[in-house]
Amino acid sequence: MACLRINKINYYGDKYYFESEVFDTNIVLIEADNGTGKTTLNSLIYYCLGGKVTHFDSKSDDPHEQIAYDKNNYAELFISINSKNYLLRRQIQKNEILVAEYLDDDGVPFFSPEVVADTTQIYRIFRAPNSNDNIFSDWILDELGIDVVSLGQGNSTFKFNFSDLLRLIYHNQLPDPSGIYKPLDNKTNFFTDSELIRKAIFELLLGNQFSELYTGITKEREADKEYQVAKNVSEEYRKLVDNLNELSGNNDILNVDAIRGELNEKESRLSKLLSKRELITKQSLPEPLQTTQIDILKNEISLLEQDIIEMKRSEYIILKEIVDLKELIKQRDQDIKNIEKIIHTHNNLSLFNSKTCPYCLEEVEIDENHCICGNPVDEMRFERFTYTSNEYIDILKSRVKSRETIVVAYEACIFELNELKQKIRCFAEKAHGMKNLLNEKIESSGQISPSSNLEEVDSFIFELKDDISKLNQRLTMEEKLLELIKKSDELKVRFDNAASHRKLHESKAELDMQEKLKQFNSLYNELMTESLDECRTAKISSENYMPIINGGTYKEASSKVSIRLMYYLTFLKMSLSDPSITFPRFLLVDTPETAGIEEDNLLACLEKFKGLKGSYQIILSTGLGKYPKEFLKYRKLYLPDKKAKLLKLRG
Length: 651
Prior knowledge:
Elements: E1 4-12, E2 16-19, E3 27-32, H1 38-48, H2 65-68, E4 74-81, E5 84-91, E6 96-104, E7 113-115, E8 121-124, H3 136-143, E9 150-153, E10 156-159, H4 162-165, E11 170-171, H5 195-206, H6 208-247, H7 256-284, H8 287-349, H9 389-443, H10 454-531, E12 538-540, E13 547-549, H11 560-577, E14 586-590, H12 599-607, E15 617-622, E16 635-639, E17 648-649
Parallel strand pairs: 3-15, 3-16, 11-14, 14-15
Antiparallel strand pairs: 1-2, 1-4, 2-17, 4-5, 5-6, 6-7, 6-8, 9-10, 12-13
Helix pairs in contact: 5-6, 6-10, 7-10, 8-9, 10-11, 10-12
């Protein structure tokens, strides 16, 4: 399955900044004293992966002073998923992540990412209620080859996000690690952190069988819901049709074919009667009335032709508007492309900004509401030419929204044009028919005495038209009912198929889980017994997948770090040996010694990180010297005291 790697992490704000080294090793060591920012580094990585970090919010109870109160600030993460490289950029306190593909020039000795044109996307992080729009989690799960699945219980439905799976990938700093899972970012209700959800996270990370199973459960649930709705609608509509037929005196049930047959027979009779009436009328028209009808027809034809001329003028105006809108869309596309380039080059190529002298390129102190030359200015009365990165993002969003509005107007014009063309055709056909009728009336002569049965024919015609109208209404209702029944039957078949597939995947997943549990228990037992002297046996429960040490009798508090850390490492080791496992071969481990583990036990656990083979990454943050000596070569950041903090003050 896919492998997730962090290549670099940066933070930029008006007051503070940080740029990491390139993380080009499988193990990345962050060695730092307490209070220097190693947890902040982990939080920034988690934040860029779509997680919620409460203390980055200035409104939180415990805000991060440097980040929460900085301005125009954002974090950016350069990642790789298999062979593709992506830039993830998230503005602080914003519900969006910018994603773009980038290329790295291996021919230069420094990190030189180049964003690929037309690959920039902006995704929301949190899913809006009743929305099916793709969010960042959907994108990254798709890239990792993990299905986006939902789980239902009663009236509650839980849609898994990448941040949920990170609960067994991000070994965060916990005072009490006995919970194994990283705590929820935001516990909205009991169901979101229930045993059912935690078990599903475990299973989704263990392989495609479980991904397919939960996808199957979701599809079955959706298919059942759609079928029940369609079934209820068809049954209610059937009752409505039966009641209307009863009120109309139609006690017999007729299917669509029978109604069409009766309708055709009555329409044929009506056509014959209309022909007979026309003949009678022509024979009975006196000469003055014939002349009057010719004049009326001529006048109606003239009015129709005037209407056609006016509609063709309107057609020309709409065509011109379509051309203008098409050109405007083209301009917006170019604007968006240019702004994307500016966004991706702004940090490295921002030679000029509002605080830089355009001549010597040195930064200058500028008083508020004053120009760089010293003269007072009113900022509301002059045009700016430099912007912050966050402002460029807002400009991009504005241009994208503007383009969407123009496209809506363009599509509306196309629709209006098609409607107008259809109307012109109808008017032209009507005028043509009236001209033919006019010619017939002009050519007709014949002064025959009035017909005595015209009144009788009109009576038959009226009766037939009423019958045909009722039959058409009945036909429309029966066709609609037939359509609803057909849809209900199709959805029933779809539901049955979904249920069969779910049962099939359930059987496969059950067998797969039995095998995966054997593998997990074997690896976990090996890791625990080799890293913790007091551990005789270690396994996980088949009921809730929680660790059982020494048959459940071992309760030593200092062992909790080992139990949790080796649990996470077992996932990583299994993913390296079994390609069907969806765990993304990545661990983010933040200061495991915080929970009070003895140093010998900590080192014994970290020793287990050595000797792993394959493509993977472990980012490990520890206190000073609290790691095996062999890990020194993996150190990418060293903060020995509070004088050397993670975030650097600008200028």
